[in-house]
Specification:
This protein is mostly helical. The protein is built from eleven helices and no strands.
């Protein structure tokens, strides 16, 4: 390749430039052969990737700190989270290949854009928690106050029921007292002669009203004693409810949630405008490297990279073809050897079959010879037997 064979002036890159080029996942050796504009472009992409990872580390570290309330754990896990986001962004940028077809590039970019938006949403929440920390603390305070008010209302309802019972008992006692006072006035008035029969002194009517008053007085004293005892019991219950309420409120205040989930819920109760602005800002930061690489024109670095990849692909294809050719040759040799083995086996089988046929013919001839001998023997024995019969017949005659 003519470009690779050209003598290129050695370009010395500054440490910051090398670091940002590393963050962009660009080939620094190729960029040394390109104009400085290409190096600046990829350094800008790498800087965006780096600061996005740094922002994710700060965001994740604060989120972990709110959960564990430990600076050490928050710092370590924050660095881990930032490194993870940095690696994902670097991978996303490195997998976008520039070519002349915009449609192919958009097909590559769309899933990566969705992943970048998802990462932005994750990164934004801890930042929102830190930015709106005072408002969130105020919201948590209002939430705690609301819970305490709910407790006050709940216990107030319970206490009001007992107080109503006390008022009913007091009203019943007052009713007995008023009846007693009424009977006393009637008794006093009758005995003084200012009402009733008008006769002054202790008469039958005065004695009757005295008995009526004394009975009402006894009923009042009995009702008052019973009602006062019950009022004391109810008042003790009210005192217990007050103590229980105080203890419950103290326990509730000590257990008020202020962790990550509670802060996220409080954040959700805040106006959505500022949070949306932060999310949109982070989305812009997260997708900036992708859009930068997508919208940038097809440059010298892309041409060199494509040429090297094309040469590598050609070399790989040639190597694969060469290996396939060697394999085909080996398979051909093996096939020829196998074919020769098969042909030799066929020849050997033919010879074996021929020997088997000759052996079978010899066996058949031997069997025929034996059969002929047996038949001859049978024939001679039969002739001899017949001759002996004839001779015996002649002797008898």
């Amino acid at each position: 390749m003519s470009r690779n064979n050209m003598e290129v002036e050695e370009v010395k890159l500054k440490p910051f430039m090398r670091f940002f080029l590393f963050c962009s996942a660009a080939n620094q050796d190729l960029l040394k052969k390109c104009p400085s504009s290409e190096r600046n472009k990829y350094a800008g992409v790498g800087a965006t990737v780096f600061f996005t990872g740094l922002l994710a580390a700060l965001s994740g570290g604060y989120a972990i700190y709110t959960v564990f309330n430990s600076v050490t754990i928050g710092a370590l896990l924050g660095l881990f989270w930032g490194g993870l986001i940095f690696n994902l962004d670097r991978f996303i940028v490195s997998t976008i290949k520039k070519n002349d077809k915009k449609s192919d590039q958009w097909k590559q970019v769309i899933p990566r854009l969705l992943l970048a938006v998802f990462l932005s949403l994750i990164i934004s929440k801890p930042l929102e928690l830190k930015i709106f920390e005072q408002e969130i603390n105020e919201q948590l305070h209002y939430t705690g106050v609301k819970k305490l008010e709910d407790i006050d209302q709940l216990y107030e309802q319970k206490i009001d029921k007992r107080r109503a019972s006390i008022e009913k008992l007091k009203a019943a006692t007052n009713a007995k007292f008023e009846i007693r006072e009424k009977y006393y006035e009637e008794y006093k008035c009758e005995c003084e002669g200012s009402c009733g029969t008008g006769e002054k002194g202790i008469g039958s009517e005065c004695l009757r009203k005295e008995q009526k008053y004394l009975k009402a007085d006894e009923e009042y004293k009995l009702a008052k004693a019973e009602n006062d005892e019950e009022i004391q019991t109810i008042q003790a219950i009210i005192d217990d409810l007050h103590a229980e309420e105080k203890e419950y409120k103290h326990e509730l205040q000590a257990s008020f949630a202020s962790g990550l989930l509670a802060r996220l819920n409080a954040l959700g109760n805040l106006p959505s405008g500022p949070s949306l602005a932060i999310v949109m800002l982070l989305i812009c930061i997260e997708v900036a490297p992708i859009l930068t690489k997508l919208l940038s024109p097809y440059g010298p670095y892309d041409h060199l990279l494509k040429t090297i990849e094309y040469d590598y692909e050609i070399d790989e294809i040639s190597s694969i073809n060469l290996r396939n050719q060697k394999l085909n040759n080996q398979l051909t040799v093996l096939a020829n050897v196998e074919q020769e083995k098969v042909e030799q086996q066929i020849i050997n089988n033919k010879r074996t079959l021929q020997l088997i046929e000759e052996a079978q013919e010899e066996l058949v001839r031997e069997q025929l010879s034996i059969w002929v001998e047996q038949e001859k023997k049978k024939l001679r024995e039969d002739m001899k037997r017949k001759t002996d019969q004839y001779q015996n017949t002649d002797k008898i005659i």
